[in-house]
Amino acid sequence: MNPRRKSRLYLAIVVLIGIGLTTTLVLYALRANIDLFYTPGEILQGKGERHEKPEIGQRLRIGGMVMPGSVKRDEKTLEMSFKVYDARGVVTVTYTGILPDLFREGQGVVAQGVFAENNTINAKEVLAKHDEKYTPPEVKEAMKENHIRPAEAYNSAVGEGNAS
């Protein structure tokens, strides 16, 4: 092999290794910033065909309906907790801060935070919508899969004893 071809071959190999390494590093960096969306049922029972559950400390978003009667506020601080439900389960969300004015029991909510022990989400941000017909799109899709509307999902969650 002549020296010119040899140097081109080395250059091509170095470029391919560089592209592969760069791609790997970018994907690894982005992985830490991705917040996967879960419904309460997916947190409790797993997501997808492999039934993957979030790991403790994982950042995620959870969407569902705020369970009536579940909102508990600390009188002295801005700490609060509430339960979010869908057709397949109920999960507790804790939040410190001022909730949106549109936050109501029985309404749709999306909380972004970190998964903690005992199937609890420590939320850093809470988004809410006031229209009683509103359901977050991901939750609406999840409930459509289960063929259960929000009120029926609440009744089934309370009936199964998941509301505690």
UniProtKB/TrEMBL annotation:
UniProt: heme binding residues: H130, Y134
Major location category of this protein: membrane
Chain intervals for the UniProt region annotation (Disordered): 140-164
Subcellular location: Cell inner membrane; Cell membrane
Pfam families xref list: CcmE
GO cellular component, one term: plasma membrane
GO biological process, one term: cytochrome complex assembly
Regions of this protein lying in the Extracellular compartment: 30-164
Keyword Nucleotidyltransferase: no
Keywords: Cell inner membrane, Cell membrane, Cytochrome c-type biogenesis, Heme, Iron, Membrane, Metal-binding, Signal-anchor, Transmembrane, Transmembrane helix
InterPro entries (UniProt xref): CcmE, CcmE-like_sf, NA-bd_OB-fold
Molecular-function GO terms, alphabetical: heme binding; metal ion binding
Comp. bias (Basic and acidic residues): 140-150
Membrane association type: Single-pass type II membrane protein
NCBIfam families referenced in this protein's UniProt entry, alphabetically: PRK13165.1, PRK13254.1-1, PRK13254.1-3
Role according to the record: Heme chaperone required for the biogenesis of c-type cytochromes. Transiently binds heme delivered by CcmC and transfers the heme to apo-cytochromes in a process facilitated by CcmF and CcmH.
Matches recorded under HAMAP family: CcmE (MF_01959)
Stated family: Belongs to the CcmE/CycJ family.
Name of the protein described by the UniProt record: Cytochrome c-type biogenesis protein CcmE
Organism lineage: Bacteria, Pseudomonadati, Pseudomonadota, Gammaproteobacteria, Enterobacterales
